């Protein structure tokens, strides 16, 4: 059974991390980082050409992680595959013992590094969830044909953006995802817990019941925060955080010490995770370290979170 599903069933605080495949075919760096995450998280999301940037497939790295003893979470977008290809990858994942997935629609290729690629979008995230749920219920593939040996069972997840205007659109989309089989939800990165609380209140008011995991992005520098505010939909880093990171950079320059902004970002991420857990705001956290997965164990240790 999915480690994340088991954790939630036992009433535990769920913890997942995120990892991107390489822009190539050498998985050694990712597997080294995975060693540090083993025993620290309930699963490692493997991104599926995030931001429409061409990389090795999510399925490929998921298989490598599974073979290395690390619990993978398969991300699957509708951007690059029709329903046949999606189901084919899902069946292949099941053959390797992968049983947790996250359905995404996917960024359009025009924003990525292979902009001439033709998008597919046969199914969006809701459509992927609906197809897999029907597969599990009927033991049939997307064409209505019986699956030899029976259909595999997946612990299915989806995403949501708590900072959105109008937020009602996200609430409605969240409802559709849950109604079509999403059993857990990972949010876009959050930086203001009061805004996050208001979002959770709206989810409760809408009567939507699911496991929500707060997205945590450890900031590395003030410039990174500014860039995300300007270019990443659903991200809103408060100015006071940006000012603190800038002050840390200035202090480091004055003292000749490198890495102070990243250290501060680790501290801020840990503080937020500790508050989320201590105040029982939601069921877990999803840490998106963006290439700095080696810092995740330190963040969790500072937050006082173990699995």
Give a structural overview.
The chain has 307 residues and is α/β, with parallel strands linked by helices. It has eleven helices and eight strands. It has an eight-stranded parallel β-barrel with strand order 1-2-3-4-5-6-7-8, surrounded by six helices. It is globular.
Residue-averaged pLDDT, rounded? 96
Q: Choose one word for the global shape.
A: globular
Distance between the termini: 16 Å
Number of helical regions: 11
Portion in helices = 40-55%
Query: What order do the SSEs take from the amino end to the carboxyl end, as H and E?
Result: HEHEHEHEHEHEHEHHHEH
Strand order of the largest sheet: 1-2-3-4-5-6-7-8
Backbone structural class: alpha/beta
Summarize the structure.
By secondary structure, the chain is α/β, with parallel strands linked by helices. Helices cover 44% and strands 14% of the residues. The model has no long low-confidence stretch (mean pLDDT 96).
Q: What brief labels describe this structure?
A:
307 residues; eight-stranded parallel beta barrel; globular; 11 helices; alpha/beta
Walk me through the topology.
Blueprint: H1 3-9, E1 14-19, H2 28-37, E2 43-46, H3 58-67, E3 72-77, H4 83-95, E4 100-104, H5 125-138, E5 155-160, H6 167-179, E6 184-189, H7 193-205, E7 211-216, H8 222-231, H9 239-255, H10 260-278, E8 284-287, H11 296-303
Parallel strand pairs: 1-2, 1-8, 2-3, 3-4, 4-5, 5-6, 6-7, 7-8
Helix pairs in contact: 8-9, 9-10, 10-11
């Amino acid at each position: 059974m999915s480690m994340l599903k088991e954790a939630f069933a036992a009433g535990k605080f769920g913890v997942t991390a995120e990892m991107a495949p390489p822009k190539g075919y050498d998985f050694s760096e990712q597997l080294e980082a995975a060693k540090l995450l083993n025993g620290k998280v309930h699963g490692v999301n493997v991104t599926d050409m995030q931001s429409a940037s061409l990389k090795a497939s999510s399925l490929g790295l998921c298989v490598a992680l599974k073979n290395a003893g690390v619990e993978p979470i398969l991300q699957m977008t509708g951007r690059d595959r029709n329903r046949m290809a999606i189901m084919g990858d899902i069946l292949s994942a099941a053959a390797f013992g992968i049983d947790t997935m996250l359905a995404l629609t996917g960024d359009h290729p025009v924003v990525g590094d292979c902009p001439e690629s033709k998008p597919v979008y046969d199914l969006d995230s809701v459509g992927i969830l609906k197809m897999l749920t029907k597969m599990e219920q009927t033991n049939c593939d997307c064409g209505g044909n019986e699956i030899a040996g029976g259909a595999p069972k997946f612990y299915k997840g989806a995403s949501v953006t708590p900072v959105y205007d109008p937020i009602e659109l996200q609430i409605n989309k969240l409802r559709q995802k849950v109604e079509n089989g999403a059993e857990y939800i990972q949010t876009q990165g959050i930086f203001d817990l009061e805004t996050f609380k208001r979002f959770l209140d709206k989810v409760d008011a809408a009567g939507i019941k699911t496991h929500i995991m707060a997205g945590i992005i450890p900031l590395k520098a003030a410039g990174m925060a500014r860039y995300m505010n300007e270019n990443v939909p659903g991200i809103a880093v408060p100015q006071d955080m940006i000012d603190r990171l800038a002050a840390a950079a200035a202090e480091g320059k004055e003292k000749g010490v490198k890495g102070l902004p990243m250290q501060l970002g680790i501290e801020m991420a840990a503080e937020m995770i500790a508050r989320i857990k201590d105040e029982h705001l939601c069921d877990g956290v999803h840490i998106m370290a963006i290439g700095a997965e080696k810092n995740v164990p330190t963040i969790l240790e500072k937050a006082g979170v173990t699995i």
